[in-house]
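WARN no homologs supplied; continuing
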Amino acid sequence: MATARQSQVRAYQEYAWVILFLLSALLVVTTLIVAGVEDHAHEFQADTGATWVEFTAAYPGVADAYVLTQRLLYVGFISLALFALIITYFGVRQGHRWAWWAMWLLPAALVLTTLLFLQSRRPETGAVYGGFAAVAVIGLLLPIRKFVPGQSRPG
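OK structure emitted
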């Protein structure tokens, strides 16, 4: 009976975890790149009209809080992506139902990020995160029969 069940599992169900794994790795890498490479001072000036130097001179405490908030956001997003990477590899790949359910946090967070960016001055970034959310949902729905088996049909 176990071999009959195994033969019914399709390749896309068996290897859908790779989609989630690669997406999580991509999120880690892109967040590290954005945190370390992007010109935040130029973006700040484009958003506010004031240079970063002017702002820090006028409001040093607020500038420190802003930098701390940015760093915490990067740490939080990298942590989410690393958790998704680990849960995908050690849980979803091995067929653990709890891991599949836990992975729904990833597209939920990506959809929320999308909605927040769509309301900002950077809706194109929101569209990218929306694409990431769609890929995550596809990666989770492909093996749905493996994790949420339906009612057995008679005869």
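The CA atoms of residues 35 and 70 lie 9 Å apart.
OK
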